[in-house]
From TrEMBL:
Name the record gives this protein: Beta-mannosidase B
Tree of life domain: Eukaryota
GO molecular function: hydrolase activity
Keywords assigned by UniProt, alphabetized: Glycosidase, Hydrolase
Keyword Nuclease attached: no
Residues covered by the Beta-mannosidase-like galactose-binding domain: 9-182
Pathway the protein contributes to: Glycan metabolism; N-glycan degradation
């Protein structure tokens, strides 16, 4: 086996134009796409800056040619088989080798392999890739098959098997990429391992049966060998004399409980990565091909069972018999230009997720089936992966040629991804059933037998016939028809079944975020709130245009793609905060609003994880972790990997141990016939959570603070045992500091109730402070007695105050700092030390609610 990379290209705009003159070719190094190369050649402005996105639209509407000359040596020409392999082409390409057309492509998501032995020649060979405009091709196909309904982007995208976000989304630009976006190479061989299918069946008793099926390109005499290696490299099991039968082998290994280390999600155990090494020999014992595949042994089940005292069914992930609360994020492609994504960038993003105490990521259905390195890193870090198929927010077709593309795509990617222990679920699409519901398409959930292709929701045939068959035949991964999807004949908005996209905060009925508890579902796989990114990111996209440095400027508007975003941002701001429109202050106000909103959701929904039979909410995946360009969006970290304050507020709610408080006013009328005689009681509820598998003895400390009277303080402590892998109710009632009121004109004291969970040695395991809302009604004191003491090594800051403080965000002049926490509530007597990598002793700037910024 020999592999020859083909990555030295030249490219041109077909016929010449804005990118290149006629017959002018620019150099390019693959894998690549046109925008990336034109940026490198300084032929176009940066579309991430200013309004330049609009200046490069012609690229996606043009045809492009990539070509190269490569040399085939006499020795290489002697190989009996020479394959030309394309791991991915974006998207419509006609391929010619030495003047002979050998391939036409129409799907970005698949690879292609062609035996070109007879077309190659010794010496120089010319490979030419002619790429047509996916936008124009899509429009032509749409004319033939009809225009369909969708949310986001141009309707022609529904006919094109290309990353759908390229057409623009409510968080991303229109940047229609084109080119050889994955490696191109020659493979020379006598015979090769064409498929390695490894299945490990972990029983309820945690015994393991591993089955390995190998397929070979040629049915020729020879033998194969297999070796299973432990993480330390030792051989656990092997078979050195496997005889192929009709070009295939099947080998089974069995292990009793405890013989193998099991893979667990982060926080629940370790992530041992085993490897299977497969070798193919000819009949003389000469090694022809070797292939190594990493695996992990785990039993992952999606549990849908009746609950003890609520309607519907649970929906949670169980790994090796351990129920998992999935606290995580949604993932979109992390760049508009995918070829710039390196394994290091993927690692930085996924490490950020884990450092934020998250354990699941959902690969959203409008992007791509991610790079191999993405899933390898998820395996290594213990991140559970929810994988959508690439259909998003649309009324997709199901005509024959489209179905052929879909089947190839599904088989290709299920085979590519199935061995990853992190992969926990395949979902058929993103929100396509919701599109069907909202547009009143033909969707009878009780019909489980029809073909559906003749209805006006024909893609149901894909989601309920094609994809489950392929997933079931080629893998052991759980298949879910859509995200969201309820089942049981219910609409996708049902909160008692399946997974839920809860967009009635921000979208929909635009509920206040204090209603997250009543908006809960069994598994909330999308919810979110917008917030501006780091001010440095704003300044990047402004590109030095100081006259545009205000929230409502044209450039700032262009870098927020959400419909009605100004009205919705201002709705939630004005309902909750007094705020300024000065740029830095406005950025802070939106960030702290996002932080408060999202933390509240995780806090309230984690409370709903209350033990076996009480998995009322089993997951919360925020929309979204990341951005594909510098923008204002729902992300919790911006394009440059700068975490927003919300990232930190979520991380606190996903620690091993947390404490939460709710405050609600209850009005009781003395006479139901009179509205004048009533009592208003303020009731508090306190609970703790424990995600470990052992009960935890803690001391709960609850203190009441009068914001305007620093001498006042009362409270209580209590010894509590937190139940394992569950929430535990601790207190319900009123507090002495807030006696009942008998008139609405009687303004209550501003009492901040703080709670801490203390370990046996006094270590603070968790803290939370509950404030009266909305914050706009609070007259914050001017003098809070705040202190930020920088450590002697200049890499941490000790925060203290004499009055309660809300939403502290730290910053510095110049280069950013890697902070360990942000959006901090500070309580007198509870100093907090914040690590600050890169601070280097610089002075710290501080913003907080009530300082005039928000």
């Amino acid at each position: 086996m020999k592999k020859i990379p083909l990555d030295n290209w030249v490219f041109t705009q077909a016929g010449g134009g804005k990118g290149t003159k006629k017959d002018e070719y620019l150099p390019a190094t693959g894998p690549t796409t046109v925008h990336v190369e034109l940026l490198r050649a300084k032929r176009i402005p940066d579309p991430f800056v200013g309004l330049h996105e609009h200046d490069v639209q012609w690229i996606g509407e043009s045809d492009w040619i990539f070509k190269q000359i490569f040399i085939l040596s006499e020795d290489d020409a002697k190989f009996s088989n020479i394959d030309l392999v394309f791991d991915g082409l974006d998207t419509f390409a006609t391929i010619a080798l030495n003047g002979e057309q050998i391939l036409e492509t129409a799907n970005q998501f698949v690879g292609h392999r062609l035996n070109v032995k007879s077309t190659l020649k010794t010496g120089e060979n010319e490979l030419v890739l002619n790429f047509g405009s996916a936008f124009k091709k899509g429009r032509d196909i749409e004319k033939e098959y009809g225009k369909l309904n969708l949310w986001n982007g141009d309707s022609s995208r529904l006919h094109v098997r290309k990353a759908q976000y390229n057409y623009g989304w409510d968080w991303g630009p229109i940047l229609m990429t084109v080119g050889p976006w994955k490696p191109v190479y020659l493979e020379l061989y006598k015979n090769r391992i064409s498929d390695l299918d490894i299945r490990n069946d972990v029983s309820k008793d945690l015994n393991v049966k591993m089955t390995v099926e190998m397929s070979f390109a040629k049915n020729t005499p020879g033998q194969a060998s297999l070796a299973l290696k432990a993480p330390d490299g030792t051989i656990v099991a092997s078979d050195r004399n496997i005889r192929p039968n009709k070009g295939q082998t099947r080998t089974t290994f069995s292990f009793s409980q405890g013989e193998l280390q099991l893979w667990y999600p982060v926080g629940y155990g370790t992530q041992p990565i085993y490897s299977v090494e497969a070798d193919l020999f000819d009949e003389d014992g000469t090694l022809l091909d070797s292939r190594t595949q990493t695996i992990g042994f785990r039993r992952t089940v999606v549990v849908q069972e009746k609950l003890l005292d609520q309607p519907g069914l649970s929906f949670f992930f169980e790994v090796n018999n351990v129920p998992i609360f999935a606290g995580g994020s949604n993932w979109i492609p992390s760049d508009s230009f995918l070829t710039t994504m390196t394994p290091d960038r993927y690692r930085d993003w996924l490490k950020l997720l884990v450092d934020g105490n998250q354990n699941m990521i959902r690969v959203w259905g409008g992007g791509i089936y991610e790079a191999d390195s993405f899933y390898d890193i998820c395996d290594e870090l213990g991140i559970l992966v929810w994988q959508d198929f690439m259909f998003g927010c649309g009324q997709y077709p199901a005509y024959d040629s489209f179905l052929a593309l879909v089947k190839d795509e599904a088989e290709y990617n299920v085979k590519r991804l199935r061995h990853h222990p992190s992969l926990s679920i395949f979902a058929g699409n993103n929100e396509d059933y919701q599109v069907a519901e909202s547009m009143h398409l033909e969707l009878d959930y009780s019909d489980e037998t029809s073909d559906f292709r003749k209805t006006n929701f024909p893609a149901r045939y894909i989601y309920e016939r094609v994809l489950p068959e392929i997933v079931g035949r080629l893998s052991d991964i759980h298949y879910h028809r859509s995200s969201p999807y309820s089942g049981q004949g219910k609409a996708s908005t049902d909160r008692t079944l399946g997974d839920l996209h809860q967009w009635n905060v921000w979208h929909g009925s635009q509920e206040p975020w204090t209603n997250w508890d009543i908006l809960a579902g069994r598994f909330v796989s999308e919810f979110g709130m917008e917030g501006y990114p780091n001010i440095r990111t704003v300044d990047y996209w402004l590109g030095g245009e100081t006259k545009e440095r205000f929230p409502q400027s044209r450039i700032n508007n262009s870098h927020n793609k959400a419909d009605g975003f100004e009205r919705r941002l201002e709705l939630y701001l004005v309902e909750n905060f007094k705020h300024s429109f000065e740029m830095e202050s406005y950025v802070y106000a939106t960030q702290i609003m996002q932080a408060e909103c999202l933390a509240s959701a995780y806090r309230l929904w984690r409370r709903n994880w209350a033990g076996r039979g009480k998995e009322y909410t089993a997951g919360a995946l925020v929309w979204q972790l990341n951005d594909c360009w510098p923008t204002t969006s729902w992300s919790i970290a911006d394009y440059f990997l700068r975490p927003k304050p919300a990232y930190f507020s979520i991380a606190r709610e996903l620690r091993l141990y947390t404490v939460g408080i709710t405050r609600k006013e209850v009005t009781t009328f003395a006479d139901e016939r009179s509205a004048a005689d009533f009592t208003i009681d303020t009731l508090f509820e306190v609970w703790g959570t424990n995600s470990t598998l052992a009960a935890k003895n803690v001391t709960v400390e609850v203190l009441n603070h009068d914001l305007h009277d620093p001498t006042f303080k009362d409270g209580w402590t209590k010894a509590v045992t937190l139940s394992p892998n569950s929430s535990t109710e601790i207190f319900k009632g009123s507090v002495n500091a807030l006696p009942p009121r008998t008139t609405k004109s009687q303004v209550p004291k501003i009492i901040v109730v703080s709670a801490r969970l203390l370990d046996e040695d006094g270590t603070v395991l968790a803290r939370y402070s509950n404030w009266p809302e909305p914050y706009k009604f609070i007259n914050f004191p001017k003098d809070v007695g705040f202190s930020a003491e920088i450590s002697t090594d200049g890499e941490s800051v000790k925060l203290s105050s004499k009055r309660p403080m809300k939403g502290i965000v730290l910053d510095v002049e110049g280069e950013d700092v890697k902070w360990s926490d942000q959006a901090i509530d500070l309580i007198p007597g509870d100093d907090q030390v914040i690590h600050a990598v890169g601070l280097k002793g610089r002075g710290v700037q501080v913003r907080y609610v009530g300082d005039g910024a928000a």
